[in-house]
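TICKET: design request
STATUS: open
ATTACHED STRUCTURE:
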């Protein structure tokens, strides 16, 4: 089989337990070359999300990958309260080393723009695991650079099912609906991976036991992170792995069904903020609408236990 050059990616993230799992999956995947990790406030404040990104890279021994601090607040409205689901430290209290490398001095949008302008057009993909604030700032402030993104794969939104922070809203889009509106209406190549899909990639305690039994450090850490989810819940037999679905889609798009939908984002009051509507006035977006959940979990386990 011919050698395939790894795809260059930037992970835009607000770690977050499931963000952390997605980052570790990307680190374990030879298909990706991670140019940097940009952070955004979301699950918890920007200082903590930035520190958590550095801690994850320190754990994996990847001091070569820069962490770049991004937006501390949404484009035009107050930021959400931190999610108790992820604990005070954002990653469920799981033990990680302190960051070895300090965050870059440059703001995330400037750093990302420089990277995109330096690399060939279309050569860098963005994996968006949190609110879309950084990418919206890039679109608004550095449009020539934004147009050079190969593809954005974003975990966010809900299409046909109930939301998780409102009747029709998912957290990432709800946290900064104006940013989501900017990104979706920009016309940039975008694949949206909504709750309709991510709720079907569910880890059980048997799954975490398999990861732990492998003895592989990244797999064991992911098992600990998933177990921390169980510890914050009661009477739950499984937990959805939302953000890792971005990496899983990039690795094996054949496991997902894509629909071309015309979507618009509500920027209204809190209850409707971030809600997606299908209609002729919307922007064409590729949306993952179903997934082979067991196969996706198997791919996650195989990747982590082979690293």
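STATUS: resolved
RESOLUTION: sequence designed for all positions
ATTACHED SEQUENCE:
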């Amino acid at each position: 089989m011919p050698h395939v050059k790894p795809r260059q990616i930037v992970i835009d993230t607000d770690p977050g337990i499931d963000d952390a799992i997605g980052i570790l999956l990307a680190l374990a995947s030879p298909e990706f070359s991670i140019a940097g990790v940009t952070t955004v406030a979301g699950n918890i404040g920007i200082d903590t999300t930035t520190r958590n990104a550095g801690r994850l890279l320190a754990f994996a021994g990847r001091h070569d990958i820069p962490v770049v601090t991004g937006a501390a607040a949404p484009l035009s409205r107050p930021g959400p309260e931190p999610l108790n689901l992820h604990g005070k430290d954002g990653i469920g209290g799981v033990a990680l080393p302190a960051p070895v490398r300090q965050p870059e001095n440059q703001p995330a949008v400037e750093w990302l723009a420089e990277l995109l302008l330096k690399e060939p057009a279309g050569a860098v993909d963005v994996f968006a695991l949190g609110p879309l604030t950084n990418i919206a700032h890039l679109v608004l402030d550095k449009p020539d650079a934004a147009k050079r993104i190969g593809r954005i794969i974003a975990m966010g939104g809900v299409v046909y099912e109930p939301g998780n922070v409102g009747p029709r809203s998912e957290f990432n889009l709800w946290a900064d609906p104006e940013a989501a509106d900017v990104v979706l209406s920009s016309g940039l190549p975008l694949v949206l991976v909504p709750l309709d899909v991510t709720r079907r990639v569910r880890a059980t305690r048997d799954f975490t036991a398999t990861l732990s039994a492998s003895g592989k450090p990244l797999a064991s850490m992911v098992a600990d992170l998933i177990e921390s989810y169980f510890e914050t819940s009661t009477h739950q037999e499984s937990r959805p792995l939302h953000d890792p679905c971005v990496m899983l889609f990039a690795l094996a798009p054949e496991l997902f069904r894509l629909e071309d939908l015309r979507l618009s984002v509500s920027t209204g009051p809190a209850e409707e903020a971030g809600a997606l509507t299908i209609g002729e006035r919307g922007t064409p977006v590729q949306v993952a609408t179903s997934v082979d959940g067991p196969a996706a979990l198997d791919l996650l386990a195989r990747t982590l236990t082979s690293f």
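CLOSING REMARK: The longest strand covers residues 256-265. The radius of gyration is 18 Å.
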